[in-house]
Amino acid sequence: MKAKRLMQALWMVPLLMVLIVPSLSQAADDVIKWRMQVLWDSGTLPYKIEERFAARVKELTAGRLEIKVFPPGSLVPTADMLDALQGGLIDMMKQYEGYYIGKMPEVAFTSSLPCGFTDTWQFETWFWQLGGVDILREDYAKQGCYYIAPTIYGQEPIHSKFPIRSLADLKGKKGRFVGLAGPVMQKLGASVTPLPTAEVYSALEKGVIDFADRGGLAANYDAGLYEVAKYIILPGFHQPTTATCYVANMGSWKKLPPDIQAIVETAAREASAELFQLHLVKGMEALGKFKEKGCEVIYLPDEEVKKARQVAMEVWKEYAAKNDTARKIYESQIAWMQQLGLID
Question: Per-residue DSSP letters for 269-319?
Fold first, then answer.
């Protein structure tokens, strides 16, 4: 009897393998794999947030969606990520929209508003409670893309090779700025080049630029900017609040089951909250570290910031006139800033 049962068990093994192996293969085939190129250099705080975002999506989807994170420039140049997304070369991007305000002038207002919103929650509220996300989803749909969510954090400082104690010090200098900060700085007398974030260190080191915006204090410390620029200028009037964004190829997005779409959106909002908090906490720690490395922190006087705002508001109006969506966003943000008492 034992021998008979053993033979029956052995006979069942191939049958079980026939049944199990296809199901395992099917499960593997069901895994959706995305490629996402991001804005920030490997090893910096924001890049680590993107790695955690991808891990969180995999966790919450029980492995059904795997997002591979690619550093800036590894697949396409940073400024070309929107084109790559539209063409299906990548499924998703984490981008600062300021890189393509020439193509979509309306996103000049949704990446960062120079001398505009002064606190992260003011900008965040505009996106989620005052229609910002809805406008952008409709707008990006025309580009063959789905706007998932913004990642919003606070000010970015200016790192400089020379002291900036007034706006007059900017005249004739070469700076790196992206988005609406570029034309504002040009009106203030600087020449501007929109270099990718990952190229800022080398450009400062080689003297290609004299000063730059790059990211938050923690990320900039991680990138070693204290080695090439000994002056930090605050407040970051050119970029007092910042929004980067998660955007997906529309075809890739529509192939996701509804529950995975919801998970991606939820994980994106988690990532925003985490970066906002760490940007503040780690930024304060980084400021002390910069000082220990011999950097001088210069705080621009209020009257200089007010002068910059007058120039910035001229640029706001110029970009609001570029298309209907830009005008709609501009009017909505102006109304909110007036309610907040930021402008008259």
Answer: HHHHHHHHHHHHHHHHHHHHHHHHTTPEEEEPPHHHHHHHHHHHHHHHHHH
Instruction: Report phi then psi at 206, rounded to 5.
Output: -85, -5
For the entire predicted model, the pTM comes to 0.87
Handedness of CA 202, 114, 292, 51 (dihedral sign): negative
Q: Residues with Cβ < 8 Å from 181, sequence gap 6 or more? A: 98, 112, 114, 213, 238, 239
- pLDDT tens digits, one per residue of 251-277: 999 999 999 999 999 999 999 999 999
Domains and CATH numbers, the chain: 32-155+241-283 (3.40.190.170), 158-239+294-322 (3.40.190.10)
Q: In what order do the strands lie in the sheet with 231-234?
A: 191-193, 174-176, 211-213, 158-160, 231-234, 296-299
Determine which helix (DSSP H) or strand (DSSP E) holds 29, and give its type and residue range.
Answer: helix 2-29
Report CA 321 to chain centroid distance, whole Å.
Answer: 25
